[in-house]
Amino acid sequence: MSTQASASQPVAEIGVIGGSGFYSFLDDVEEVRVDTPFGPPSDPIAIGELAGRRVAFVPRHGRDHRFPPHKIPYRANLWALRSLGVRQVLAPCAVGSLTPDLGPGTLAVPDQLADRTSGRDQTFYDQGAAVHVSFSDPYCPTGRRAAVESARTSGWEPVDRGTLVVIEGPRFSTRAESRWFASQGWTLIGMTGHPEAVLARELALCYTSLCLVTDLDAGIEEGEGVTMEEVLRVFGENIDRLRGVVAEAVKALPAERTCACATVLDGIKLPLELP
Ligand SMILES: [Zn+2]
To answer: Could you confirm whether the keyword Glycoprotein appears in this record (predicted)?
Structure first.
């Protein structure tokens, strides 16, 4: 089992985990099969150039969308990215809105996360030693700034805050659940933002979520509530500009990290050797 990027293997500095609509934004793409101690990632990883940066792209659900949110190999995806040299990750995703202020077509860069998933592997450190990483601010401050400023440059004023609650899925919420989440002050709801965020932190990677609102969740919508049809329609209408913002953010990320994400594991004795 090889987890290290070998001399002949292409490397990348920035990772993007997103839908398959993101393949086309890289130039000179090469696909790499990576194995990890946690199994293979969702699919071979596409590595290419973007604005002079080396970028690795993981199609979160697999190229043919075979992994529903609760079955995505999150640990393998993050481990594979780190083994290729990636240290900063941008994670675009589709979300619902828990407040009428953030309608479909809104771009939000959340600053907080609430985990309502269950039964997903949430850590790399299952045995050998207890590892407790700091997670009070789950997203990279530098990555968030890059995302917000890139959206502004692209003419798409983003919402520079918000709490993303991540549910287990794959079903959507009941009206009662949705109203309950909203009553906590949580503003966005999705199914894939966790454990992706904490697994990135556990590998000392910077992680930034870019949330495209595709629907109003069940609690604030009269009628049928969320349908997959509506989600896909709004996503399709916005994928080009979301890709544009992610590309701008790739350019804006610093070559050298000065944020706390980089040093979060300093002084902690790890039971695993990181790639
Ligand atoms: Zn960071």
So the answer is: no
